Each structure stands twice: as C-alpha cells, then as structure tokens.
Amino acid sequence: MNREEFIAHIRGEQEQLRRFLLALCLGNRDEADDIAQESLVKAYLSSSGYQDKGKFTSWLYRIAHHTFLDHMKNRKSLQPLDTAYDIADTSMPADRSFRYQELYAALDTLPPKERSSILLFYIKGYSVKEICQITDSSEDAVKKQLSRGREHLKTKLKR
Q1: Model's pTM, two decimal places?
Q2: Number of folded domains in the chain?
Q3: Most C-beta atoms within 10 A of its C-beta, which of 46, 53, 115, 116?
C-alpha cells in the first residue's frame, strides 16, 4: 500500500477510530488522541505489510486496540471518576462532559479486553468473528468477555 492509498483509507476511518478510543479511554480526550496518533503512525509504518486480505478497518482497529492495551499497562493512576462526577455542575458548559460519567465509571471497572469487546460489539457493530481478529482472541473468549462485561455493567449501572 502506498502513501496515497493509506491516506485514502484513513480519511474515512479517522474520526470513527478517535470515537472508539475516546470510549475506551473513558472520555479522556487527550489520552484517546495520543493513542489514535500513535496507532496511525504504527499503521502507516506497517502499511507496506498490509495484504488487503481483510477489511482495512479491522486491521486499523487491531493496531489501535493493541496500542490501547500497551498504554493501559503503563498508565498511572488517575483521580477516580466517581469523585470527578460528584463535583461536576452539569449546568456549566465545561462540566457537561461528565454526562457520560456513570457509563465511563462502569466501563472503568471492566478489564481492558472486556471493555474493548463491549465497545466493538455494541458501539462499533462488529461481529464476534471480527472482534476475534481485532483482539487476537478466540470466539469463546470474546463471547465470555461480552457476557461478563454485560453482567458487570448491569450490576454497576443499577446502583
């Protein structure tokens, strides 16, 4: 794949990729943008090896997913989301970003692979087989991640 082909593929996927990473990063736009940038650089550097055997989107999301997991390993502890939500005044424009705080707090309790599977399946609309390719997991593993993730979210969001 040459540079022009890569750019053409990325144009249609860049915003969706950023949204996916924003959800994975629980609304932390700076972290999501950093991971997106790093993912795009990695994809470009390895684009010569892309064989067009599968969907470009799945290939790109696979790179982004692995980059996210790498960042999770190196992530420093942040202020708990529940605390930030308690002090937010949602009538103020700057605090409206906390409107998804409850969901982000629930997603934050999920292990990274469960969170990825949930977001890829329910938000991005990928099939179980496509998620397997993106996350390097078996079908059974993805199905378990989805099941466990749903149960964890139900429990957390009922509170």
Answers
A1: 0.68
A2: 1
A3: 116
Domain hosting 45: range is 1-78
And the tokens for 30? 């700076």
Predicted confidence band of residue 122 (pLDDT cuts 50, 70, 90): confident
Establish if 17 belongs to a structural domain. yes
What's the rounded Cα separation, in Å, for the pair 148 and 25? Answer: 19
Count of other CB atoms within 10 angstroms of residue 34: 15
Q: Is residue 155 part of a domain?
A: no
* CATH code of the domain containing 45: 1.10.1740.10
Alpha helices for 25-159 (secondary structure H):
29-45, 56-74, 81-87, 101-108, 112-118, 128-135, 139-158
pLDDT at 85: 42
d(CA 137, CA 86): 37
pLDDT at 100: 67
What pLDDT score does 108 carry? Answer: 84
- Residue 152 in domain: no
83: number of Cβ within 10 Å: 9
Nearest by Cα to 32 from 102, 122, 97, 128: 97
What's the rounded Cα separation, in Å, for the pair 153 and 75?
22
